[in-house]
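Chapter summary example.
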Amino acid sequence: MTADTLLERITDYANRPDPWPLYAELREAGPVVPQHDGSYLVGTYHEIVALLHNPRMSVDPRNLDTASSEQARRLPFLRLDDPEHHRLRTLAMRPFGPPHSPGRIDAMRGEIARITEELSESIRDREQVDIVDDFAYPLPVTVICRLLGVPRGDEPMFREWTDVLVAAADIGSGDDTAQRQNAAVQAQQEMGGYLLGLAQQRQGRPTDDLLSAFVNEPDPAQRLTPDELAETAILLLIAGHETTVNLITNGVLTLLRRPDQLERLRNDPGLLPRAVEELLRYEPPVHMRERIPLADVDFAGTTLPKGASVIVALASGSRDPKRFPEPDRFDPTRPDNEHLGFCSGVHICFGAPLARIEAQTALGALIPRLGAASLVQDPPPYRTNAMLRGPRHLPVAF
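The structure predicted for these 398 residues follows.
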């Protein structure tokens, strides 16, 4: 095998349980590794950061040479460049409260703790649980539903839409790209219509949720259009739970594989915030993102052509030995842990504060019980998605 097949091998489902040797091979192959499909892979920390901060690198898939009509569908601000990205992101963040002050997320701490306690009680007397279905999925879904004002009972409906949209956004996902993009267009229309309908029900009858805040914004200059509101609500709903499920599940899996570190955290719960940061580096929920040069870009000895697909392997960068000493060791006391778990640059994850609170609360509730737990299956079955990597199920016996 050669380096120009690395993306194909990394995204091959057979390597989902253990992609780390392939990332090491990627880093050895060079800062920029051309692939046989015309894309480019970048897996070293400093080069990834440089690309993520380069204004000539776009996130908009419509700039791809291979852009199709399906990719020209309405896009959330996550897939837009500045200044439009900055404008929509700023409007989306307004209801969360002023920067650098306690806001809606901090106010949710008690509610998150209560939801976590309810889930903990529901599995307390069971001899076997699926960490994903019984805990890691329902926690962030319930939280984001409360924040947005979406009925929790509608979860099966929007879960189906979410699965379609996440599959369409995956990297290196095979020969059915057009089919998945067509399905995504339909899911986007249906989900956007559903969320916009919920918001419009609150127009003039405000409630304490984000949909209400968006539709009742008093300043016309700061108000999202109906299309913008629908796309923003879709993004918040999906991003508000998809990655956090992986973060919690990967955390439990990592600790059950390392009883010494589990015991350490049981004896010193104050280490938990740093342990979550280390999990974001060591077993991140998001492994890759795509960038597209807006012009030919000379970078690290390679010319990245305008319109090419450049895949930044965030997970590889976070285990780069040139940036992190002993990168393959899980160390909840690791200093200087500026990982790429939430990406970097202007598109850094806007949901990071919520994800941190949920992960710390969830693991804080689970760790006291995990000492008596064992993995039923190791490695567990993984999700098919290569970009959002995490177990589909994590059965644990007590």
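To summarize the output: The radius of gyration is 21 Å.
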